[in-house]
Amino acid sequence: MSDRMLLCLDCGNTRLKWGTYDPARRCWLAQGALLLTEIGRLPAEVRASPGYSTPAGIVGCIVANHEARAAIELGADALGAPLRWNESQAAQCGVTNGYEEPAQLGADRWAALIGARHLQPQAPCLVVTAGTATTIDRLDADGSFRGGLILPGVDLMRTALAHHTARLPLAQGDFQELPCNTRAAIASGCLQATAGAIERMFRPIAADPAAICLLSGGAAGHFAGLLDIPLRHVENLVLEGLAQIAVAVAVTDSTA
Ligand SMILES: Nc1ncnc2c1ncn2[C@@H]1O[C@H](COP(=O)(O)OP(=O)(O)O)[C@@H](O)[C@H]1O
Ligand SMILES: CC(C)(COP(=O)(O)O)[C@@H](O)C(=O)NCCC(=O)O
Ligand SMILES: [K+]
């Protein structure tokens, strides 16, 4: 396998997250994020990052629209490295996919499950990514993805209330146990809905002392403190999975 750097790209519905990965030392050189409106800056950002050299390859996952996809493909051309979009599959990197139609599972959820499998190989995991949407996915200790939930992300919940009611503002309130004003009631309701769904999904695995919830995504910090379950925060679990996929792909390509 080439020891050259690999670039991983996770394009969600709000932001493009990127990371440069050193496969020889198995560590990140740099990570960053751009709003979808800033995708054109990707080549410049990545080139300016610590330890940059032309990547041997780029592995990405995308759940955003065609415009974002086309812009990223242009960026990959500018960086002079081949780009491979990873899709959800029936099995990959030690994870098997329990979805009725494996390809229907969001490619970001799939990569996050692979990241979880790598970081907690022996444990039953609840894999939570809190972004535009919040996803709550169950991964058993043998690597089987058993199914999961899609909720509006915490910001989307607040936005939906503001857009579809006459009297509710776009609230930025703090969390309160028993809110006594509208802003705190909205903010706390959205956070409790999310935390409650996570804790409910954790219940079936809670008896296993190794069971853990892996929490990632840009909105994770809003409710992490509310969760009363074993928790590990991972800065970007999707990128962790993409790095494992990129290494596996590079091995396959070099032996083909
Ligand atoms: N600087 C920021 N810009 C945009 N969203 C942010 C920022 N900081 C935190 N967030 C939160 O992160 C969420 C986006 O997280 P992210 O994991 O990038 O989502 P996605 O994968 O859907 O693009 C937003 O909905 C918001 O709650
Ligand atoms: C659920 C999602 C919208 C999450 O997207 P994100 O919050 O990361 O932008 C995305 O994973 C998706 O479009 N999934 C396809 C449907 C599915 O997973 O069943
Ligand atoms: K998500």
UniProtKB/TrEMBL annotation:
Keyword check for Kinase: yes
Reaction(s) catalysed by this chain's protein: (R)-pantothenate + ATP = (R)-4'-phosphopantothenate + ADP + H(+)
EC number: 2.7.1.33
Compartment(s) of residence: Cytoplasm
Chief site of localization: cytoplasm
Binding-site positions, ATP: 10-17, 132
Reported cofactor(s): K(+); NH4(+)
GO molecular function: ATP binding; pantothenate kinase activity
Pathway: Cofactor biosynthesis; coenzyme A biosynthesis; CoA from (R)-pantothenate: step 1/5
Record-annotated active site: 108 (proton acceptor)
The protein's enzyme class: transferase
One of the GO biological process terms: coenzyme A biosynthetic process
Domain of life where this protein originates: Bacteria
Cofactor note: A monovalent cation. Ammonium or potassium.
GO annotations of cellular component type: cytoplasm
Record keywords, A-Z: ATP-binding, Coenzyme A biosynthesis, Cytoplasm, Kinase, Nucleotide-binding, Potassium, Transferase
Binding site for substrate: 99, 106-109, 182
Assembly and binders: Homodimer.
Function description: Catalyzes the phosphorylation of pantothenate (Pan), the first step in CoA biosynthesis.
Similarity field: Belongs to the type III pantothenate kinase family.
UniProt name for this protein: Type III pantothenate kinase
